[in-house]
Design goal:
By secondary structure, the chain is α/β, with parallel strands linked by helices. The protein is built from 17 helices and 13 strands.
Length: 420
């Protein structure tokens, strides 16, 4: 039994001093469920309302929600998963691409049965559900998602005579070429924005890496992946994005705010940073899903976000599952999406954010969202990311096939560091 004060959401007024237990109805003692959530994933008001409702519906349980920082969270979670249980978290929010590294070694509780029987897993966003699966078991339960859309200047589109956003890749290229003038960039796309490239690769049917016989190998040199890189090259050329830097160097919000850029590819929330730098753009920004190869179907995009997991060493399994069910369920997941401008965890809930232009565009794209390869070693690829220099080389005139082979070999080396 955990002996903790309720942090963040309960403010301790009704705790019994020194024992960590709260009396429920009829004087029964409540069992504490400790939940680790990440900073800024949910507002204080949301957590207050969720906690009050959950504890009312579960009079035998009390929530202890503890807010964590993303910086350094990996080792902290790993230490908690390796502990003996009893004083660690019962539920943990993790990045959707992190589930595999935590699930390896049976450190997480499989929730496959609940997901199939009770939680409607068939409707989950694939970019959250797929990386939450490891060795045929569902460990990560989708919570919320965010993905890139096209943020554009409505006034510059109108000035160019463009009355509606493009719906196919070829239309997007044609529109962007019209917008690219002597004074304005048709699009600002940094040369090393590899998450955006990943979407183009997936749209062509390619992969960043593939698994065969238990071994992961880089796959940027496949014909499909090379087609994705070629589309990126054509689009990136219709602006002045640096070939040797990513979207944070310089921050693309700053570039967009200067007023000479017609489009960027970013999460809708970046618009707030743009408006902080240039309030004159208020009411001039619009959003549309990243176009795909065919009309009526948005392009594939990288989906970021969070899953909820339950450590295998929890001593409060029943309560932990109840928390996950509530947070990921229709009512509170919809409320979280509306409150925080997220994409809900199910494609069937997209209508809940239909009235918010940026989030609606994001939700449309999320239906075709993907995540990075589901291997615990993918972090090693990103640590010394060979995709970035590959992109720069191609954008500065190097042979795409040769550079793709070189990058793929480096990815393979990171994913299979000690081949037999």
């Amino acid at each position: 039994m955990r002996r903790r004060l309720l942090a963040l959401v309960c403010a301790c007024a009704c705790l019994l001093p020194g024992c960590g237990l709260v009396p429920g109805d009829g004087g029964a003692e409540r069992r504490t469920v400790t939940v680790w959530l990440m900073k800024d994933s949910a507002s204080r008001d949301f957590l207050d309302r969720f906690t009050a409702d959950f504890e009312r519906r579960h009079p035998d349980l009390a929530l202890d929600i503890r807010i964590q920082q993303w910086t350094g969270i990996g080792p902290k979670v790993e230490a908690a998963l390796e502990g003996a249980g009893g004083d660690g978290p019962d539920v943990v929010e993790v990045g959707n691409t992190q589930v595999a590294q935590y699930a390896e070694g049976d450190a997480l509780l499989p929730l496959t049965l609940e997901a199939m029987r009770d939680w409607g897993m068939r409707d989950w966003l694939p970019g959250l559900a797929e990386p939450g699966r490891w060795m045929s078991h569902q460990y990560g339960i989708p919570w919320y998602a965010a993905n890139r859309v096209v943020v554009y200047r409505k006034d510059l589109f109108a000035r160019a005579g463009i009355t509606s956003p493009p719906t196919t890749q070829e239309d997007w290229l044609a529109v962007t070429e019209r917008l690219d003038t002597a004074t304005d960039q048709g699009i600002y796309l940094a040369g090393q924005d590899w998450y955006t490239l990943a979407g183009f690769v997936w749209e062509e049917g390619g992969e960043l890496a593939v698994e065969r016989d238990g071994v992961w190998r880089g796959a940027l040199d496949s014909p499909a992946a090379l087609r994705g890189m070629e589309f990126y090259r054509r689009l990136q050329a219709l602006g002045d994005g640096p070939a040797d830097a990513d979207e944070e160097h310089p921050p693309q919000a700053e570039v967009f705010a200067r007023g000479r850029v017609a489009q960027i590819v970013a999460v809708p929330g970046l618009a707030r940073a743009v408006l902080e730098r240039n309030p004159a753009l208020e009411d001039k920004l619009g959003f549309f899903p990243v176009p795909g190869k065919t009309a009526g179907r948005p392009g594939a995009v990288f989906t970021g976000g969070s899953d909820l997991v339950v450590p295998a060493n929890t001593d409060e399994q029943e309560g932990a599952v109840a928390v996950v069910e509530a947070l990921a369920g229709t009512r509170w997941n919809t409320e979280l999406a509306r409150t925080m401008n997220y994409v809900p965890n199910k494609t069937t809930l997209a209508r809940a954010v239909a009235g918010q232009e940026g989030v609606a565009a994001m939700a449309a794209g999320a239906a075709r969202g993907r995540a990075t390869p589901s291997t615990p070693l993918w972090g090693a690829v990103e640590a010394d990311n060979p995709i970035k220099p590959y992109m720069t080389a191609v954008l500065t005139g190097a042979d795409p096939a040769a550079e793709a082979r070189r990058a793929s070999r480096r990815i393979t080396g990171a994913l299979d560091p000690a081949p037999e």
